[in-house]
Amino acid sequence: MKGSGILVTYPKSGTIWLKAIMFTLVNRKKYVIKENHPLFSKNPHELIPCFEFDLYLHDQIPDPSSIPSPRLFATHLPYFSLPKSVHNSASKLVYLCRNPKDTFVSLWHFINKLRVEKMGSCSLDEAFDMFYKGVSPYGPFWDHILDYWNESKKNSDRILFLTYENMKEESSVHIKRLAEFLGCPFSAEEEESGMVEDILKLCSFNNLSNLEIYKTGKLIYGQESKVYFRRGEIGDWTKFLSPEMVKRLDQITEHKLSGFGLKI
Ligand code: PAP
């Protein structure tokens, strides 16, 4: 891979999954997929630093040379908030989007898992109101994905737009697209040897969530690794959202996204 790869998501869109896949893909010559692969001892959030949490939060001028090549980064920043240095660089951006209903349900569970006890829990109605109004450090969900979608249409060599649902349903098609985009396509020998399936299996929800380090480990800010693995399914929202919430999310999605050719 030439240059850096930057993975962008709105929170709870499958960041950790795509981090695991991208890390394994670009490092597949260095780390053979077997028991001593870094994913067995490190959480993907530790393997791929996030600009706003891991790099710029502590160190105003992080030293990129300390990050092993090929360099991968992640961010939740909206397109217009990316620094000029990213816009002017040759870095490749991979955007992963997830349907708003599952993203919201995942976010609501996550907020409650991280809340300190004395704050009490955040009700579904309260969380819904904030999500619907776009109250988030990263702005409204719909604007976030639409900006990256539009940019990916203008500049498809630079931005690859993926969806969680397509990644789940046609995993091998999209992991191959991702490998091509990052400049490390699978060779015929790799495909014949089952490399694509091996990577997908290694990074699958069932595999990662059952590893000891993800069941009991903690990340540097003290949050438990297991909070990043809940169900990992499409359509889990049906168990939580009221018909009124579904109607409002469908309407705002239609209102914000219609006319842009993006179906989520
Ligand atoms: P982040 O943006 O805070 O880093 P992120 O990793 O995007 O979080 O979201 C976690 C979601 O991805 C969870 O979804 P859920 O709440 O609907 O279950 C989590 O279960 C899901 N997830 C984690 N690992 C995988 C995986 N390997 N495959 C599919 N989904 C996964």
UniProtKB/TrEMBL annotation:
It comes from the Eukaryota. Keywords: Transferase. Residues 6-261 form the Sulfotransferase domain. GO terms for molecular function: sulfotransferase activity. Its EC number is 2.8.2.-. InterPro entries: P-loop_NTPase (IPR027417), Sulfotransferase_dom (IPR000863). It is an enzyme of class 2 (transferase). Belongs to the sulfotransferase 1 family. This is Sulfotransferase. It comes from Olea europaea subsp. europaea.
